[in-house]
Structure formats: C-alpha cells, structure tokens
C-alpha cells in the first residue's frame, strides 16, 4: 500500500514538473521583482480621423512574485500614474487627464492585477511567452483583460549591474482595452478617438533587496 | 489694383508657400507638438526584450494648433498663414487709400 502511494506521489510530482513551464536560469525557487525605474514605460495607442495618438507614461511601478521553475505561479500588480501620461502636446495631455477623460484627480492610477497565467511557451532558456489574465482598473472601473506577454530573465552579471543590481526581469506586454467599457468619454479636442486602445508595457525589474 | 498692391500679393503668396514648405519639411504633422519621443533602447534593453525611451523638448511645426491654451502650440501653418493674410489685407487696404488720396 505504501509503495503504491509513493508511486502515485512520485508520478504526480513528475507530471507536475513536466507540465510546469519556467525559466532555466541560475536562480531557483520563488523570486520577487520590483519595478520602480523611471525608464519603465507604458504606451497607449489610439487612432483619430486626423492622426494617431500615442500617450506614454514613465511612471510605471509594481512588483511580481513567481517560482522561477513554474511561471504559472506569477502574482503581482503594476501601477501607472495617470498624471505622467504625455502625448507630445500639452493641451491634449490636459484633456486626457481632465474629468471628462481619465480624471487624474479622482483616479490617479491605472492598475493591472495579475490573476492567472496560461499558454506558457518557453522561447529560450531565459525567455518565455504567456497569456496573462488580470484585472485592469482605470477611471474607477475594473475589467478583466488578457495580455500577451514576453518575459526575459537575465542572471546578474557585470553587464546587468550597469543597469541595476540583482537579476533582471524584462516584461513586454500588450493588450487592448475598450474605452467605453471604462466609462471614458472618448472625445479629445473635438476628435473622436478610437474606442479601442492598444496598451503596451515595457518594464524591467530587479530582485535585489 | 496698383503696382504696390500687386507686389504685396506676390510677397504674400511667396510667404504662405514658404510656410507650407517649412511645414512639409518638418514632417507634415497635423498638430503642432512641443515634445518628441526619443528611443533610448540599449543593447541590454534589447536583451531584456524591452524598448526604452523618453520625452524630449522639441518643437514640431504642425498644420493646425492643437489648442489655444499654450502659446507655443498656437504656432502653426494655419495660424501663420492667417496672420500673413490679415497683415496683407491691412497693407493692401492702406495702399488703396493712398491711391484714392493721390487721385483727389
């Protein structure tokens, strides 16, 4: 009976490890990465009849925790400061942050809370692709969105220390949000902005404490 | 139309065409901009699979002003051409008055 139980447990562990997808890097176990560098950015792309609008924020912060050998354990939250959103035109920035649009005064942050990770594909030993499902909150409304993410893990080296101490995690994630779902009146300067906004996040974090 | 008025019209046309040429040479942007996004992606950033950049102050001469709140943003092909036309109208009118006085 004991032998049968042992076999079942071993089989379960083997199967679990075979299906769990993670990085093949020096680090092991659970790692927490903090994202608080001013070079991190979140981009919001939309089209209008006259020209495409790109808003970029350099105020992107947050942290994620996951087991290096099993990326499906990913948990964490990313914040974007609405007041830092710039489009290259001061007048338009003012409109974007106004009460009619993102209402920066009442809703100063846009957030993405990770709930689930699926479709993990290991591209290289230190790079993988995954679909990250999370709660996207802006303008006081929260909706579930699915982001296509590419995540790269770099072990600490002489080269990485020039950027930041510790192991580095690079995240490139893309997803779409529908403005009307978030009660945003999508008219800026008399132009109708596309209801569909493409969001791209380019951030790196470190596990240095 | 006297010879002075004709000269004013020619100068106006040249100025307006010049303004449009400057606009086209500046990239033909619809709206005037005061900042541009500059790519600062390093080799390490490429290894991390991310793009890095920052906003840099730079004036881009547009076709129309995006608003009427920021002074610099009001400088555009449309506003400059409009201003040239207004000045032309005033000068054109002054020259007509002078001609009428000379006739009397």
Can you tell me about this structure?
Chain A is mostly beta strands and 209 residues long. In chain A, 14% of the residues lie in helices and 51% in strands. Chain A is built from three helices and twelve strands. Chain A has a ten-stranded antiparallel β-sheet, with no helix packed on it. The longest helix of chain A has 18 residues, at 2-19. With 104 residues, chain B is α+β, with helices and mostly antiparallel strands. Chain B has one domain (3-103). Chain B is 54% helix and 14% strand. The two termini of chain B are 17 Å apart. The chains are: A mainly beta (209), B alpha+beta (104). Chain A binds chain B through residues 39, 41, 50-51, 54, 56, 58, 86, 88-92, 94, 127, 150-152, 154, 159-160, 162-163, 168-172, 189, 202-204, and chain B through 29-37, 40, 42, 44-45, 47-55, 60, 66-67, 69-70, 73.
Sheet with the most strands, sense and barrel status of chain A: 10 strands, antiparallel
Broad structural category of chain B:
alpha+beta
Query: How would a textbook summarize the main sheet of chain B?
Result: 2 strands, antiparallel
Would you identify the regions of chain B where 5 or more consecutive residues have pLDDT less than 50?
none
The pLDDT mean of chain B sits at 88
Computed CA radius of gyration of chain B, to the nearest angstrom: 22 Å
The helix fraction of chain A, in percent, is: 10-25%
């Amino acid at each position: 009976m004991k032998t049968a139980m042992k076999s079942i447990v071993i089989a379960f562990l083997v199967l679990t490890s075979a299906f769990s997808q993670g990085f093949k890097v020096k680090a092991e176990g659970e790692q927490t990465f903090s994202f608080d560098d001013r070079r991190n950015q979140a981009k919001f792309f939309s089209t209008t009849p006259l020209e495409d609008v790109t808003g970029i924020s350099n105020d992107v912060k947050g942290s994620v925790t996951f087991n290096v050998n099993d990326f499906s354990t990913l948990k964490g939250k990313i914040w974007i400061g609405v007041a830092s959103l710039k489009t290259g035109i001061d007048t338009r920035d003012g409109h974007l942050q106004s009460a009619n649009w993102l209402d920066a005064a009442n809703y100063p942050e846009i957030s993405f809370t990770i709930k689930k990770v699926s479709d993990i594909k290991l591209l290289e030993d230190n790079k993988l692709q995954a679909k990250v499902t999370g709660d996207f909150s802006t303008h006081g409304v929260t909706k579930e969105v699915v982001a296509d993410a590419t995540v790269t893990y770099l072990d600490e080296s002489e080269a990485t220390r020039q950027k930041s101490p510790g192991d580095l995690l690079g995240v490139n994630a893309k997803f779409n949000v529908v403005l009307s779902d978030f009660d945003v009146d999508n008219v800026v300067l008399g132009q109708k902005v596309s209801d569909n906004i493409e969001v791209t996040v380019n951030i790196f974090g470190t596990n240095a404490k | 139309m006297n010879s002075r008025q004709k000269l004013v019209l020619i100068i106006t046309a040249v100025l307006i065409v010049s303004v449009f040429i400057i606009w086209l040479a500046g990239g033909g942007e619809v709206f005037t901009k005061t900042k541009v996004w500059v790519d600062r992606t390093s080799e390490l950033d490429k290894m991390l699979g991310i793009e890095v950049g920052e906003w840099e102050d730079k004036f881009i001469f547009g076709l129309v002003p995006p608003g009427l709140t920021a002074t610099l943003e009001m400088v555009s092909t449309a506003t400059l051409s409009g201003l040239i036309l207004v000045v032309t109208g005033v000068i054109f009118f002054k020259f007509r008055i002078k001609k009428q006085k000379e006739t009397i």
